[in-house]
Amino acid sequence: MTDYPHRSRRAFLGGTALVLASGLIGMPSMADASATAPAAPRLDYRNNPFTLVYDGALTKNEAGKVQIHPVKYKVLGLDIAANVYTPANYEPSRKYPAIVVAHPNGGVKEQVAGLYAQRLAEQGYIAIAMDAAYQGASGGEPRNTDKPQSRIEDIHGAADFISSYPGVDPARLGLLGICGGGGYSLAAAKVDKRFKSVATISMFNSGRVRRNGFEDSQLHTIQERLRQASVARAQEASGGQVLYVGGGAPLTDPQIAALPFEMYREGAVYYERTNGHPNSGAYPGSGGTYTVSSLMDLMRWDATDQIELIDQPLLMIAGSKADSGYMTEDAFAKATGTDAKELFKIEGASHIQTYWVPRYVDAAMGKLTTFYAKNV
Fold first, then answer.
1. Which overall architecture, per CATH, does domain 34-227+289-375 show?
2. Could you tell me how far CA 105 lies from the centroid of its own chain?
3. Structure-derived torsion over alpha carbons of residues 28, 31, 33, 34, reported in degrees to the nearest 10
């Protein structure tokens, strides 16, 4: 876990009202266990030498098997922390296709991004899962700044780094984005033609949700939240406290049960109870999922802006029961620049269940394996 000494300067702008208005995935404790809690036991990051918190995670590097390699590199002068996964019997003298994996909002490389990166390495790819700048174990201040231009640059920077990694064939580069990382991957692929194809899982359009609220439920508070963001930025610029959405003590079980969207209820369980990691902005006591000032950038951005510039093959995966699915469907319809596109719904899966439930992860991997084999 990275320790950031400035955390004593933080002020927390919490409360359910702002959580809902901002479209924040809650950071909180388990609500109605019978309805939202996964059957899997809690995964403790301290029990894994790489602090990975997903089922089947690597615990050591063994000869002849998939291995994990922690790395650091620079993007726009900031240190980026990442894990590179190499396939079984990896030989640096050979040439392998590679996949960049972008993590969800509030997540880190040790969670679902690492799970899919490891599974891709099992299929013969070199895969990189990186912490976004200002987040996780990567550098940047204020912590947990979440601005689209930074998240998109993270993806370009990962392509820069992995293209020169021993054994990578830079002409065979693919992109996978999960949740918020999916929206940012769409934006990156529009202009970065090094990516021969792009896939998303449970895509979350951060701009639309931060602007309009989840399921466009907060249209009436847009101007109010923009004013809050403007005040927060002015306060930061004058050396005052950094305000955060979320943070502080975890929500109680009744508070989580009262959240109106399944994605938020299940996200609370995933990020705190079963797959929590202290470097995640969605971890209780971490400080907050993102800075209030980030809303100035998020609310004027949209993952579907100029999406027709994507001419590469596109695969979009979502759970058939995901209440976030409307974002995937909207983006898919607007992606008119490519004829090689497919929308695949995992029957029975919710948004968060695509992060960890074995049968749903297997279903997603089945589509990804075929897609990348053909298009990378």
1. 3-Layer(aba) Sandwich (3.40)
2. 5
3. -140
